[in-house]
User: Fold this.
Amino acid sequence: MKRLSVGVVFESMSTMRLSISALALLALPAFAADVTVPAAAEPVAEDRATKDDYALDGAGTSTSLKIGKDGTFSLKITPKNGKKVHPDAPLEVAIADNALVKAGKAKLSRGDLKDKASKEPEVTTSLRPLKAGTGTVDATVSFFLCTDAWCQRMSDKIQIPIGVSE
Assistant:
């Protein structure tokens, strides 16, 4: 026989478990009466930006170049889902060194924007072909994506295929 400190005697542990379970069930209706189930929760405002909230577009970049004739590097940032690129926060595009082409300016910023008032900022620079071949122009992009309530620094990379001929 087992004795509990409250003075209740049980024949076995299984009888004790069964009795405790029965007591819990008796208390459940009283407890459930005091429980309030909230109505459907209001949607929580999105507080983090993702790569789905913008697009990087390098379509304005010259992808077929000829040695002796400069081309263009162009990158446009298009915000989506009600977000915007902050018009005054830092915006940087760094073009990686490349054996095929040399960027007229390796680091671009707000001063290099085509249209400073545009809601889809676009930076451009020249590309000088160095030797024939195929490859990519690689760039790292950093900017601030915002809503009316918050801003978040975004960093991304883009690769644009290019070909250089003689």
Observations:
- The mean pLDDT is 82.
- Residues 68 and 117 are 34 Å apart (CA to CA).
- The radius of gyration is 32 Å.
